[in-house]
Request: fold
Amino acid sequence: MPTSRTGSATPRVTKRRVETRNRLLEAAGQVFAERGFGRATVEDVCERAGYSRGAFYSNFASLDELFFALYTSQSSALVAAVAQAVAVTPPGVTLEQVVDRVVATLPISRESHLLNLEFAAYALRHSEIATSFAAHRRALRDSIAPILELGLLAGGLAVTAGRLDQIARAVAAVQDGMFLQELLEPGNADLPTLRRKILVEVITAGG
Amino acid sequence: MPTSRTGSATPRVTKRRVETRNRLLEAAGQVFAERGFGRATVEDVCERAGYSRGAFYSNFASLDELFFALYTSQSSALVAAVAQAVAVTPPGVTLEQVVDRVVATLPISRESHLLNLEFAAYALRHSEIATSFAAHRRALRDSIAPILELGLLAGGLAVTAGRLDQIARAVAAVQDGMFLQELLEPGNADLPTLRRKILVEVITAGG
DNA sequence: GGCGACTGATACAGTACTGTATCGGATACA
DNA sequence: TGTATCCGATACAGTACTGTATCAGTCGCC
Reply:
């Protein structure tokens, strides 16, 4: 059997193919955010990306597969970004600085939040995905935990690992909840400030 | 022109019609929660309700209209429930009791939360609905504000109206965020407890 | 620079959903 | 109890989407 026989298993990964795939992923992010995954069609994504449906089916077996690929891509990028932020954080930072860093690192765009809603909704309806989604969120909490601990230590507060995870959960909850409020009331300029305030309160109260 | 001429304007509201409408609404809640609004079809709702598509179009012009009717119905019911809880709350309750009351009043079922996600996602994509959705959330905050104030006063804390609204926002954010975590990790029995803990912290820290 | 492999455009069949039109039968009311 | 009203079942046409099959042009590799 010849080594590079028909691509049934692994089509050669050419530059062109990578480019196509990436543009499809990017277009999918926009379309899913705009219309919602449930209302998005293969045609929508192709039109946005500037490809035909042939190109799509050459790269993905279905919309579901593309959706999952997008989710994987986004979440690994996010974890990497958080890890990077933690790595460059010096010891001795104040709690306010920690909150600023966390807020600055986590995604802020309308599109990313809408996508997150889509991912969450999808996960809640597909238990196998829910497991993966929950694991991803745990990874995120584990990533920000060290930076939170730094801020607490700077304030003279020491906490157990279990308590730290609870604080990380509270931070995640406030982030999710407040960001939804901000999206619903884009005209309310006080909300970002309020969000930071609540985050600081939640962290200090937890320590 | 005869008064009760053709139903073009207002079809007579018979008992039968009310029943049909209610069963369609109930079925819609289940179907939208299960499949998501984007994936739900008129046929799905009819099948679940035990009616034919003719019955559906006799009562609603489109799925969108049914969706909005469901949203209206649910949100007014929720506001009423909260108002009722506030009305029967005696002065002098502790903060923990207040939290318990708030938690007990706000919707808890998986279905109601999934529906809320659908409503939020829809609102974020339709600005005219977003306004209405935001107004509804404001009404809810305004409803729980008095009960929160009661709890704070019992602890000897007095707050301004503005500060009270900020606390209500924090409570809403924690509720939304923590409930999502609970749904994603149904096996984690510690989360409801943690949610109460965070709620208490957020309220006291705000006072 | 030429050849073979593969990408992505186009065409097509099949399916699913929507919305309307029609009509039998149930229901409210005298 | 009779009857006019209208509810809701069924049938149908039109549309949109999916997934596959085919093929021309292009790219990678020697």
Observations:
- The two ends of chain B are 64 Å apart (CA to CA).
